[in-house]
Amino acid sequence: MSVEKLTTAFSLLPATSILSLPVLISVAFLSVFTFLLYPGGLAWALSLLNNPGRRPNSAIPGPAGLPLVGLGYAFASETTHRILAKLAKSLNAMPLMAFSVGLTRFVIASQPELAKEMLNSSEFADRPIKESAYELLFNRAMGFAPFGDYWRNLRRISATYLFNPKRIECFRGFREEIGRKMVEEVKGMMGRNGNVEIKSVLHYGSLNNVMMSVFGKGYDFSRKGNDNEGEELEGLVKEGYALLGIFNWGDHFAPLKWLDLQGVRRRSKALVEKVNVFVGKIIEERRNVRSESVSEIIDANSKDFVDVLLDLEDGENKLADSDMIALLWEMIFRGTDTVAILLEWVLARMVVHPDIQAKAQAEIESIVGTNPVTDSDLPRLTYLQAIVKETLRVNPPGPLLSWARLAIHDTNLGPHFIPAGTTAMVNMWAITHDDKIWTKPNEFNPERFIEEDVSILGSDLRLAPFGAGRRVCPGKAMGLATVHLWLAQMLQNFKWIPSDEGGVDLTECLNLSMEMKNSLVCKVVPRV
Ligand code: HEM
Predict the structure, then answer these.
(1) Residue 32 shares a structural domain with residue 130
(2) CA-CA 20 to 30 A from 405: which of 28, 29, 64, 416?
(3) Ligand 1 atom 7: the closest Cα is on which residue?
(4) 138 and 71 housed in the same domain
(5) How confident is the model at residue 34 (pLDDT cuts 50, 70, 90)?
C-alpha cells in the first residue's frame, strides 16, 4: 500500500473511537513502516508529502537505506562510487536511482542518456553547497557560486584570461621547466632512497605550475633555504582538500551541523584566516608594484591572473578583495590536486603494464628522438594521449564528478519528476565500467582509443571526466596540456619499474578526488 493510500485511510478512521484503537495503532505502524521503505528513503518520502499532487507511480527506483541515515554509510566509505554502482545495478536503476542521506534527496544517473540530460540542463546548473565549502569562501568562487550573473562573470573572466589557448601556450616554457625539475628531483630521490615516492614530486610541481599561471610566482623546487612559502602554501591546500573531502554528517542533519562534531567548521575558520593572510599579501604586494610602475604597459598575454583581476578594479566588474581571494584560492586548489592525482595513476599503470609503457616510449623516440619533449610534440603523441584517456576511464580522479549539481526548480529527468533542491549526481565510474558500453571494461587497454577516437571534453557522456554542460571543468585544456607534457618527460627520461617490495597497490580511496590509497612507490632506471 502506498504512503498516500495509507494516509487517506488513516484520516477516514473515527480517531476518537476507543474500539478502533488497535486498528489505529496497526495503521500508524504500517504507515511509518511504508514511509521508511519508500523508494529512495526518508527524504523522498517526505518530499511526497510536500507534493501531494504527485502520483507515486513516477517514483524513481532506489534503496530506502538505513532508517534516518539512508545511504550516509556509502558516503562515509572509500569507494562510494562502487557501492552506488552496485546498488543501481541490483535495483535496475542504472538510468536514474533515488536515495536519501539524512534529509537530503539525491538522484544519480549511471547511464549516459540521463547523465547528459542532467549535466546539460540549466535546471541543474547550481551546486549544493556544503558547510566546508561555504566556510572556505567557495560560495564566492566559481565552483560553488550559485548559477547567476556573478558566476557567469567569473567564468567569462577566467575563460578569457586564464584558460584560453593563447594563455595556456604562453606558459609552455614554464611547464617544460617544471617537468625538467621534476625529472631531476626523481633522479635525486632514487639516488638517495633507492626508490621513488612520486606523489610529493607531482604535487609540488603541480602547485608551482598553477602558482605561476595564477600569481606569476614560482617556488624553489629544492625547498632549501629560508623560502618555505611554497611549503606553507602546500599545507594550506592539503588542509582545504581534506576539509572538502570529509563527509560531514552536519550537511544532512541540521542539529549535527550546529554541534560541529567533526570539527569541520572550526578547522575551516582557522584555515580561511591563514588563506586570507597568504593570498591577501600577494594581492597587496602586486598592488604596490603596479602603483610604482603605472607607465608600464603589460602585454595582455603575459599578465598573470592577479593582474587581470586588479585591472577590473577600474570597471563595473570590479571584485571585492574577499571575492578575489576566493577565486584565486580556488584556482590553486582545483588545479593542483587533480593533475597530480591523475599523473600518479598513469605512472602506476605504466609500472603495472610494462608493454604499454614500452610502446609509449617507442612512440616518443620515433616522433621526438632524443631531444627533450616540448609542447609542440604532444599532438603527434597519440598513443600517449590514449594512455591518459584510458587512465581517466579506469581510474578517474572524479568518479562521481567530484562536484554535484542541484535542481534549481521543480523539473523532470526523463519521465521522472525531480523536486527543486534535489542533489543530482553522475556516476561516471559506473558508466566507464559498463560492459554494455565498453568491451572488457576492467582491462587497461589504451588501444581502444586508437581504434575509436572518443572525445573526453564533455560531448560524449560515455567518458566525460571533466563533466559537461554549463559547469564543465574550465581547466580541462590546461590540465590535459600539463599531464601530457609531464608524462612524456617522465617516460622519455626513465623506465618505471616495481620497487623491491613488489607490485603496485591499485586500491582506490575516494576523498574529494579518487586517489591511490597507498601512494605509488617504485623504482626508475634512467633512459637518456
Ligand atoms: C585532470 C585534471 C582535472 C579534472 C579531472 C577535473 C575535473 C573536474 C570536474 C569533473 C568538474 C565538475 C564539472 C561538472 O560539474 O560538470 C570540474 C570543475 C571545475 N574545475 Fe576541474 N578538473 C581538472 C583540472 C582543473 C584545473 C587545472 C583547474 C584550474 C586551474 C580546474 C578548475 C575547475 C573549476 C573552477 C571547476 C568549477 C566550474 C564551475 O562550477 O563553473 N580544474 N573539474
Answers:
(1) no
(2) 64
(3) 466
(4) yes
(5) low
Distance 472 CA to ligand 1 centre (A): 7
Question: 81 CA to middle of ligand 1, Å?
Answer: 18
522 known ligand binder = no
Q: Are residues 25 and 90 in the same domain?
A: no
Question: 155 and 23 share a domain?
Answer: no
- Supply the pLDDT for residue 14: 46
Same domain, 217 and 306: yes
d(CA 221, CA 204) in angstroms, rounded, equals 8
Residue whose cell numbers read 554549463: 470
Mean pLDDT of the chain: 88
Closest CA to 279 of 136, 142, 474: 136
Question: Does 424 share its domain with 340?
Answer: yes
Per the structure, the complete domain to which residue 451 belongs is given by 37-526
Count other Cβ atoms within 10 Å, centred on residue 76.
Answer: 13
Q: Return the higher-pLDDT residue of 429 and 227.
A: 429
Distance CA 455, CA 464 (A): 8
Q: 82 and 209 share a domain?
A: yes
Q: How many independent structural domains does the chain possess?
A: 2
Q: What is the pLDDT of residues 322-335, one digit of tens each?
A: 899 999 988 888 88
Task: Among 428, 466, 512, 515, say which to mutate for ligand 1: greatest number of ligand atoms within 8 Å of CB.
Answer: 466
Distance 309 CA to ligand 1 centre (A): 20
Q: d(Cα 496, Cα 200) in Å, to the nearest integer?
A: 17
- Ligand 1 touching residue 468 (CB < 6 A): yes
